[in-house]
Amino acid sequence: MAALSSMEKKLAEYKCNTNEVIKLKLVRFPEDIDDDSTTFGPEFSHQLFGDDEVAFGYKGLQILLYYSAGNLSTMFRVHYSSKVDDKFDGVQADDVESKIREIIPPGFCQGTDDFVSLLEKEVNFKPFGPIIHTYTVYNEEAGEEITYQIHKADLTCPGFREYHERLQTFLMWFIETASYIDVDDDRWDFFLVFEKYNKDGTTLFATVGYMTVYNYYVYPDKTRPRVSQMLVLPPFQGEGHGAQLLETVHRYYVSSPNILDVTAEDPSENFVRLRDFVLAKLCQDLPCFSTEKLLEGFSQEMVTEAQQKLKINKQHARRVYEILRLRATDMSDPEKSRAYRLEVKKRLVGPYKKNQREMAKMRQCLKPEELTNQMNQIDLKTQHDQLEESYQELVSEYRRTVERLAQA
Ligand SMILES: CC(C)(COP(=O)(O)OP(=O)(O)OC[C@H]1O[C@@H](n2cnc3c(N)ncnc32)[C@H](O)[C@@H]1OP(=O)(O)O)[C@@H](O)C(=O)NCCC(=O)NCCS
């Protein structure tokens, strides 16, 4: 028994958390290579290393995936101080190198010298496709305004296919259910964000983030673009690039008469929060979202105006209405706050009512002895509590958006 536990202990020494040992880096200057402060790790690695996000068989494991800042030319290396051998009774080390090779395209280098040579070629890297938006952000560290450009790219841009193959490798580490897309389907639109920076007096471009959008066909002659993947690379997150990108994409589609509205595939919480802010910011200037109109209730006029002028989907227009109405409501006034609560709960109650109808149908099929009054009461009480909880959660999400609107 004691021998087994010492073996277990030994095995544990050779296990490591893959989110901690994968080291990602976006490199502009050769000195960044050895600068730990520019390294970042994945948020997820379960798609490659299983739900435990563990690699077995190594001590001191480090998986380096370094990318040049613009073109994303890649250096991939695996380091470790020791690896399990036969004394572990045939328990083999995970083949971490093969796992990574499955998701990164060929053509990467493995040596630092080769990588430094690739960095020198960054001067030739130019963003793909036409610029559709330019903006600046003041950078406190640099003490200056930095310029960013959003481009719309497609597969006809030379080198874009290979660049996209490298770019999408980041999805595995930052989107929980990421998968690669079939770029040969010409219904994909690609939007890319780049930062302009200076190196030895020359302007270079660094990749900041991107979005892929699939143009779904809607009978008989319309299109509904659906945001599929959106990623702002971690060193750039929380600086407003996500908001700039989403707003630019909406504005881009506004001029196309055949576009119905923009939707999203399986949106994450972060994305919904971002979208709430962007759409509320856009709608707050529309006449039918004026304070006066907001207090009169949700209207078809709002749906039509948001869709026609900004390509906003009906359900999203409803959320925007609730956010902007919250902002316009004096919640310290019991009457006004009650009116707001009832208005939101009226919408939230929809699925509960459906649930109740289904329960009623089910009861008709049950024998009287299977039904108890108590059961009915529990159902109603639980549903009431759940409704209140959903309302409170929603209002606190909305308050965050209202706060961000105030700072914008
Ligand atoms: C979700 C995602 C796209 C957002 O991009 P982003 O560039 O970080 O978005 P923004 O900077 O516009 O907003 C993010 C936050 O930064 C804050 N922020 C923006 N500019 C800021 C500034 N100058 N100062 C302080 N905070 C700021 C925003 O208020 C927002 O805060 P919140 O999350 O509390 O609401 C990005 O985080 C990401 O790629 N995540 C991983 C992948 C993912 O989840 N994708 C979405 C689903 S596919």
TrEMBL record:
Coiled coil start-end: 377-404
Region ranges (Interaction with histone H4 N-terminus): 51-53, 214-216
Protein's GO biological process: subtelomeric heterochromatin formation
Enzyme class: transferase
Main subcellular location: mitochondrion
GO molecular function, a single term: histone binding
GO cellular component: chromosome, telomeric region; mitochondrion; nuclear matrix
Keywords per UniProt: Acetylation, Acyltransferase, Coiled coil, Mitochondrion, Nucleus, Phosphoprotein, Transferase
Subcellular location: Mitochondrion; Nucleus matrix
Domain of life: Eukaryota
Domain Histone acetyl transferase HAT1 N-terminal residue range list: 14-176
Keyword Nucleus set for record: yes
Record field: catalytic activity: L-lysyl-[protein] + acetyl-CoA = N(6)-acetyl-L-lysyl-[protein] + CoA + H(+)
The keyword Coiled coil appears for this protein: yes
Active site: 265 (proton donor/acceptor)
Site feature: Interaction with histone H4 N-terminus: 188
Ranges where the Histone acetyltransferase type B catalytic subunit C-terminal domain occurs: 275-326
Similarity remark: Belongs to the HAT1 family.
Biological role: Histone acetyltransferase that plays a role in different biological processes including cell cycle progression, glucose metabolism, histone production or DNA damage repair. Coordinates histone production and acetylation via H4 promoter binding. Acetylates histone H4 at 'Lys-5' (H4K5ac) and 'Lys-12' (H4K12ac) and, to a lesser extent, histone H2A at 'Lys-5' (H2AK5ac). Drives H4 production by chromatin binding to support chromatin replication and acetylation. Since transcription of H4 genes is tightly coupled to S-phase, plays an important role in S-phase entry and progression.
Assembly with partners or alone: Catalytic subunit of the type B histone acetyltransferase (HAT) complex, composed of RBBP7 and HAT1. Interacts with histones H4 and H2A. The interaction is dependent of the ability of RBBP7 to bind to the N-terminus of histones. Component of the histone H3.1 and H3.3 complexes.
Name of protein: Histone acetyltransferase type B catalytic subunit
Originating organism: Engystomops pustulosus
